[in-house]
Structure formats: C-alpha cells, structure tokens
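Quarterly update, task 2.4: magnesium ion-bound model.
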Amino acid sequence: MWKKIFGKKHNEEVAGVEAGDIKVEPVAETVEAVQVVEAVEDARDIEVAGAAATVEKPSNVTEKKSIFAKALQKTKGVFGNIFVRVDEELYDDLEEMLVVSDVGMMATDRIVSQLKMRVKAKGISETNDVKNELVDVITEVLGEPPSDEFDKKIILVVGVNGVGKTTTIGKLAQMYKNQGKSVMLAAGDTFRAAATEQLTIWANKVDVPIVKQGEGADSSAVIFDAIGSTKAKGTDVLICDTAGRLHNKKNLMDELEKIARVINREYSEATLEVLLVLDATVGQNALIQAKAFAEVTRVDSIVLTKLDGTAKGGIVIAIKAEQDIPVKYVGIGEKIDDIMIFDPRAFAEGLIM
Ligand SMILES: Nc1nc2c(ncn2[C@@H]2O[C@H](COP(=O)(O)OP(=O)(O)O)[C@@H](O)[C@H]2O)c(=O)[nH]1
Ligand SMILES: [Mg+2]
C-alpha cells in the first residue's frame, strides 16, 4: 500500500495514516509505486538531529499582536462590531463572520460551541469577557507552533505556482542569516528558467550561495549538487525550491520521490523540514491545496503568504482544524523582512480584539 513520500508526516497521529486514504492518479500501480514505497522506507531513517538553534522570536507579544492586527485589518473589517450583547444573536453573528473569514464550518462549529459552553460555565455577561474567551478558544484550536531546533537542516519548499515559494525562500534565508547561520539555496524549480533567475536575485540580495543548473534539469540532481556543496562548506541551512505542478500529480510525486531518495541517501544526518506554502488570498482553495499536497508528500508545516492582502486570514484556523498541519510562518508583504513566526495567541488577538 502507498505511504506518503518522505515517510513521517508533520506529527505522529497522522503519520500512521495508511495509503488507503491517499488518492493518487491511476499511474500508481507499478514501478513508481514500488519506488515511492522504497523511498518512504528509506526516508523513515532520516534522523532528527536534535540540537541548539532556535528561531528568535521577532518581538514581544504586544508588538506581534499589532503587526497581526495590521495584517488582518481586512479580516477585522469583516468582523465589525458584533459584540454588542451576550445573546444568541451574538453567536449567530459570530458563526457567520467566522465562516465568511474562511474559518470553515468544522472549526467554526468547534469554536462557537466551545465558546458558548465556557461563557455559560463561567457565567460571563460582559462582551469584553466573551472576546477574551474567544481569543483563548481560537488560540487553543491553533495549537502550539512547531519549534525550530536543528544542527544541520534541509528545507524543502513546496506549493503551487504563484503562492510565494521563491519569495519565502529569500525571506527565510535572510531570517536564518540574521540568526548567524550559514545558508545555501538550491534552485530546484527547474521547470521554468525564470524560476532560477528569480531565486538567484534573492540569493544575491541576501548574499548567500545558490546551486543551480539549466532549465529543464532534473530537480533532484540540483538538490544532489547542493547537498554536496552544503556538506563541503559545512552550511547550516540548505533551502530548496521546487516546481509546483500539482495539476499533474504523477509528475509532482515522481519529482518529490526522487528528491526524497537523494536527501535520504546523501544527507540523512540533517533535519528535513517540508514547508508547504499557501496563499491566504485564495481562501478555501488553500485548504484544498493543503489536502492535495498532504496526499502526495509529507508536510511538516505551512507558510501562509499574502496575509497582508486578504480579508480571509481565518483560513489559518481551518487548515489547523481540518488538516492538523501547523502554521509556522506567515508572509505579510513582498519585502525581505515581511515574514513572521506564527504566534497563535497574537494572531487570535489580532483577529478578534
Ligand atoms: N503581498 C504579498 N505578496 C507576496 C507575498 N509573498 C509573495 N508575494 C508575491 O507573490 C508573487 C509570487 O511569488 P513567488 O515567490 O514568485 O511564488 P512561487 O511561484 O510560489 O515561487 C510575487 O509577486 C511575490 O512578490 C506576501 O507575503 N505578501
Ligand atoms: Mg518560484
């Protein structure tokens, strides 16, 4: 039976999900299937190199809250002032607003029923207290953000075209560099020449080395080269771009499978992190993409981009509630430092307060 490429998923609970649940195009049958399963068994052995480095929290909670509030201004606009009285109407309005903000039915039901229960249990009668309680409930639904501890690390950035993969790689490179880490980029999106050019611009801007080959080169060959270079230089973080051809699942799977083999064979001592980049402005579509990618590959965490340009920041909550994939970073603009470590409480406060 099929297992997910790269074996281990983002957490233990879902790691056990058998391939029976995974819908793959009919190609699945033969040679490729065997290869993927092998790759998966291989990838199992990838050790998580436990050690030092943690990502610096960018700022204190108040500061983060205000940044989120700014990024979520449009979402807040949708919410408006529904907190007038503590009554059934409040819950109805809240339900509607959460759905409109792309929180999704599942998470909305969970949030509203939790809130009702707690408001009742605590005998809350002030709208402000309801707000505080709502922030608590949403924070809990969002869970703890993933940590960032590693000795050597390889990050594989996946996602469909246009979501912001290459931009995010530039931002992450700068972030790790600011932390004093050495960084290298791998131009694994070999599908279009422009992709490599774009990543090269970021590499120059951040002033980190980039490994690339010509258009149409094998993505896994680029990553193979990059790993060699990373090891030779003792680079801390290797960040790999990939092509996002989700419309052709077989190609995508084949490509990711080959990459998985290479990483496992050549760089098993590094911590592997598969980051799925999603565009917040596409709303529910981001959730569909998260599901689709989780079907073909391991996904450790999500980078939600373009949160600055959407009224639908609530998709973060839907993704966590429905796919159980944590959001690790959010993109809040096109500039190099427009990235933040996702902070569930600051996010919930920014959304509600
Ligand atoms: N407003 C905004 N734009 C972004 C963000 N991240 C990426 N973009 C823009 O989205 C577009 C596509 O980004 P790109 O990195 O090329 O996406 P890729 O195809 O997934 O590699 C570019 O115009 C980026 O400047 C973000 O967080 N906010
Ligand atoms: Mg790109």
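Highlight for this quarter: The mean pLDDT is 81.
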